[in-house]
Amino acid sequence: MSTIQVLDKTFEPYLKEAEIQEKITALATQLNQDYAGKRPLFLSVLNGSFLFTADLFKQITIEAEVSFIKLASYKGTSSTGNVITAIGLDINVKDRHIIILEDIIDTGKTLHHYLPQLESMQPASIKIAVLLNKKEALQFPVQVDYRCFDIPNKFVVGYGLDYDGLGRNSKDIYQLKA
Ligand code: IMP
Ligand code: MG
After folding, report:
1. Prior bond of 92 cis (ω within 30°)
2. Which site among 11, 111, 126, 164 is 20 to 30 Å from 177 CA-CA?
3. Does this model's pTM top 0.90?
4. Which residues have C-beta atoms less than 6 Å from ligand 1?
5. Cα–Cα distance between 171 and 21 in angstroms, integer?
6. From the CB of residue 78, how many other CB atoms can be counted at a distance below 10 Å?
């Protein structure tokens, strides 16, 4: 595999399709065990999580539902910033077991600000499953319950993840070239 160009930046191969799929299969197996009989609701956070969600959900063999939300995080002048719900929940989550699906946890800001809203709807439980966990970048406390990969604090694209809207459409994940 060679480097790719997205807008003004060059990215080099980082995680290959086969390793990504292997981790997703392992995660699905774990979730099938942990949530058997609980009819969980997978709550996928758009846009970045759409491929991860599709590949994971295909391997969920227990009774389960999936739904989508879209959160937009605005970097204002304040250090906390603002997280707005661009597309909200359209189903009742009271007493449901929720598994949030995120492509990547970076600072943790997006989920840290969204979780209280979700908690106020009184679900039975909330767990977070992520494809990529940039644990050194975490600034806002968020508990990641399931992860496919812990990655260093470097910008990545591919497999749903974008740089300025582009670069989502690849089966592999690429890392910004130093
Ligand atoms: P957080 O709120 O800082 O945890 O960031 C969450 C969101 O920022 C993710 O859902 C991504 O959309 C985006 N993001 C963070 N790091 C990266 C990256 O390395 N590549 C692409 N998008 C990223
Ligand atoms: Mg993004």
Report:
1. no
2. 111
3. yes
4. 48, 73, 102-110, 155-157, 161-162
5. 10
6. 8
